[in-house]
Amino acid sequence: MELTPARLPRWILVLAAVGGLFVVLPLVAMALRVDWVHFVPLVTSESARAALLLSLRTSISATMLCVVFGVPMALVLARTSFRGQRILRSLVLLPLVLPPVVGGIALLYTFGRRGLLGGTLEALGVDIAFSTTAVVLSQAFVALPFLVLSLEGALRTVGTRYEAVGATLGATRWTVLRRITLPLVLPALISGAVLSFARALGEFGATLTFAGSLQGTTRTLPLEIYLQRETDPDAAVALSLILVVVAIAVVGAAHRVRPLGSLAPARPVAPALRRAVDTH
Amino acid sequence: MGLTFAAQLAERDVDVRFEVATGETLAVLGPNGAGKSTVLSLLAGLLAPTSGRADLEGSVLFDVGASRRTLTEPRERGISLLAQEALLFPHLSALENVAFGPRSRGVPRTAARATALGWLERVGVAELVHRRPHQLSGGQAQRVALARALAVEPSLLLLDEPLAALDVSITPTMRLLLREVLQGRTAVIVTHDPLDAFLLADRVLVLEGGRIVESGATAEVLTRPVTAFGARLAGLNLVQGRRTRTGFAGGNGIEVPLADRLPEGTALVLAVRPAAISVSLSSHPGADAAVVRAEIDDVEHRGDLVRIHAAGLAADVAPADAVALGLVPGIAVDLRIRHGDATVYPTRREQQDSGRSTAGSGR
């Protein structure tokens, strides 16, 4: 038997519809402005191709950085307790609420030529600011909290009981991590990585501030769109549509990865009910 | 050798000391929050004691004191834990769950799977090897979990209410399976079911408020309890009292003559089954029975009988008699106990061997 869904006041439905339109309508408006006749030439121009490829390359690199450093960060935040942990967590999540331009300035004064680490890096022969590396760093900086946040939540939900069982069965810490913890949070890891990728792909402010806008080197797709908007609005709209399609694909992918908990109910309800009936 | 355990855990106010011989099963009973699961967690290494020491078959599990702190990692203790929930790894098949322990201890994949299959057969679920945990019923999952716990050949098996979360219809077969695998195995089982203690354990230990209040052979504790909790487990009435010049005098007025030589003032308890107490509106205190007159506090319907609570005692009467006598809370009744149905013994268990005393004609 299925329960009838709760009835809601009508004005709630109205407000919800208005909110939905507010999100969807601008996308429709933009799609309506696309110059379909010249769409293919517009999105395959040399500058557009360079920007798209650069965006994909840097976003993938940034996502990998997020995974490499974000997974250990989430593990430390979820599985240990130490003084100042709450403050540290807030700081880690700061890029989420910080204006990206501010992030870019902060990065500039860290990795820039006259920044905190600039001298050291220069001595090593590394020049980061206004290079492709700077793009990756900007994107990783803003995208990292997405991965840490989603993974830490999943780790806390899964709890430590399976890990304790693994330990009593003789597994080393590394085996527990590899064969129990990570497989259990894999869905969250994937959706967190997908979200980080999406955030990296859309990154604009920090990139512009810290990496500049050099075609083929630091001019990612969002920067290209912003520039084209002045000179060739049709190209800007066409490229925007590409980003919208990528975003929809990403959101779809993130949704398809169901959390393990919902995929594996502790005990199927139907057999339990049948057993109860059989015994009476 | 076996297990010797002594530990204090300040933040949970637990202070417990006991031993388990090799091959022996100890049942730990007690009300909720008594510290039963804490003891298991200390043994498994999931909690560290404030102080204490435990050894299992000659190797140290923990040794914590003012100047020393040895804590063996859980994986090096040789102790398996079977909890109330099966806690099978949800992303692994039944076979891989059971093979997890051997593989973690360095057994090659093929050999570990062979071992796992053997254990799954032993617990009677060999046909479920490729199922994922969410495709198993509660009972099947608990069998797989048992196989997983045994597959690492533990020196000590810990069972934390292993039957509590199961369907009532499958607990009997699961209990028999446990009885079978616990033969000759060193184990500690936490339970609230006296039946588990009767069928599975050689010895019983009752915890209350983080302290041991009773311990002894299972039959001894469940037939001659000295605490209210032990009495409730055994389904007995327990009356605290003292030795007088003539016999036993209980706190609720019961007097039973005794023929022993215990000194006056010795703390004694009287145990009597609820079915052995007869209830009437008035009766004569014959030479062979004690009578207590009291108001009924509560009347409880229990299927085929009615339980009367009065004067701190529970008495079972037939429903027809309860109706005929008009037994309702507030009316005064006579509770009559034949001397021969009452068992009287000292509260302190160590005095029992020398000072065991049974009332009247004895049982």
UniProtKB/TrEMBL annotation, chain B:
Record SUPFAM superfamilies: MOP-like (SSF50331), P-loop containing nucleoside triphosphate hydrolases (SSF52540)
Keyword set, alphabetical order: ATP-binding, Nucleotide-binding, Transport
UniProt source species: Arthrobacter echini
The organism's place on the tree of life at top rank: Bacteria
InterPro entries: AAA+_ATPase, ABC_SmlMolc_Importer, ABC_transporter-like_ATP-bd, ABC_transporter-like_CS, Mo/tungstate-bd_C_term_dom, P-loop_NTPase
N-terminal signal peptide: none
Record flagged with keyword Transport: yes
Matching PROSITE patterns: ABC_TRANSPORTER_1, ABC_TRANSPORTER_2
One example GO MF annotation: ATP hydrolysis activity
Pfam family, one: ABC_tran
Domain ABC transporter residue range list: 1-234
The protein, known as: ABC transporter ATP-binding protein
